[in-house]
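Next comes a concrete protein, fold included:
___
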Amino acid sequence: MSAVPTNPAPAEPAGRKVLLTCAQPTGALHLGNYLGAVLNWRRMQDDFECYFGVVDMHAITMPHEPAKLRAATLELVAWYLACGLDPARASVFVQSHVIGHSELSWVLGCICPLGQLERMTQYKDKAAKQESVGSGLLFYPVLMAADILLYNADAVPIGEDQKQHLELARDLAEKFNSRFSPTFKVPEPYIAKTGARIMSLADPTKKMSKSDPNPGGTLYLSDPPALLRKKIMSAVTDSGYEIVSREDKPGITNLLHIYSAMTGRTIDDIQNEYKSTSTARQLSATEFEYVSKYSQFKTAVADAVVATMEPVQKKYAELMANKGHLLSVIKAGDEAAQKTAYKTLSKVYRKVGFLERPR
């Protein structure tokens, strides 16, 4: 086990609140990640002291290929930067490079009731699908709590599927503070003022996801323009002919949200543009054919997505062609994260009663 230095980094002066958010390097980012998360992270850089982590230690709770994990870690950092995360204003680090994540998770695990982990929804869902379950799958919410508490984060951007995990981090912070004395901030969920909830193009009742069994349902940031267009033009739409955001029209509603997020236009403004673009033509005394402009609308959505993604993809390609620069960004982010981690870990070790290392 790596030891904490006897002279950890001095405390930073009081300033902006700390925000931490992390992602696993287990698949390419998609449009839902970009619009629902990364764009908001980009906006946060001026308001918070930001730590953006690539949590590769979480990625090994499931069977994986080591070479692919290394490649995916570097690729995720490149996507972070291509999407606008600025290493001059935030720390972009790799979890396994920073001493403190696994160490703190052990300390927190020793005060975490087993039953609380067994009740985690994601654990139960994943365990039900596998014949054999590693203990890492059960324990990883404690590691997630350590990720958050190690940086004394004030705020953590989360999705619906992570609420339980943040509650665990809050519970463990309060339990440690009560048992040993105030040490950790109790983190709050960060709810962005803006952000789109993007649904699958194949099944608009479900969120866009990299685990979607239908590859046409997910728009990956790495998809070339022609493929982005093909997926959007093939997106599931609804009965009727109106281009309107409505509960009974999830397909068109999803495309409206994507178009709005891409262009900055309001849903009402877009709906008004297309209000008069649907006509009815009488075929007989009792039969009508509705001539929809769905195709025209989908083309506009595709144009907006491609126009937004092309410069991001170009920047990503430039970054991947300069591996040295990417590694220098990671090194700087690791060092900044490590200073904070050492400070927290040193305090935790002292409070739980570990003997200070002889000088």
The beta strands are 18-23, 49-54, 90-94, 155-157, 188-190, 279-282, 288-291. The first strand starts at residue 18 and ends at 23. The mean pLDDT is 87.
